[in-house]
Amino acid sequence: MVWKPNTTVAAIVEQDGKFLLVEEDTADGVRFNQPAGHLERGESLLEAVIRETREESAYRFEPQALLGIYQWHHPQKDITYMRYAFIGAVSDHDPEQPLDSGIRRALWMSLEEIQACRALHRSPQVLTCIEHYLAGQRFPLNIITHLERGEP
Question: What is this structure's pTM?
């Protein structure tokens, strides 16, 4: 069996002192996460985070910086995740848009609210990303290179 980490993307969005999160049904019960999901075949990381944010929150996401790359091994599932977290802004909310399967709602939470529900985070990456964002960590988007098929 070939081992491969799961590549995921996440949107870190802060507005008026609150962060955009989603409440979702998981195999472990209801959990909180940033709008996030898996990179699909043929997508760039930026395309993936824009798509996932729209599907999970009904907002259009505009990436502005790379927050960081996070490696986390889920001990109960024996799965390693490589999360590319992007900082950005949202607009064009469509309240009529159905959200992805399993997503109950998108909501805005303060740091204190997020810290208070730590036991219900989808992964430790949720709070770690917010802490890094608040510490001012940022990398320019041009740090990521996406080569199309056929390019050397």
Answer: 0.93
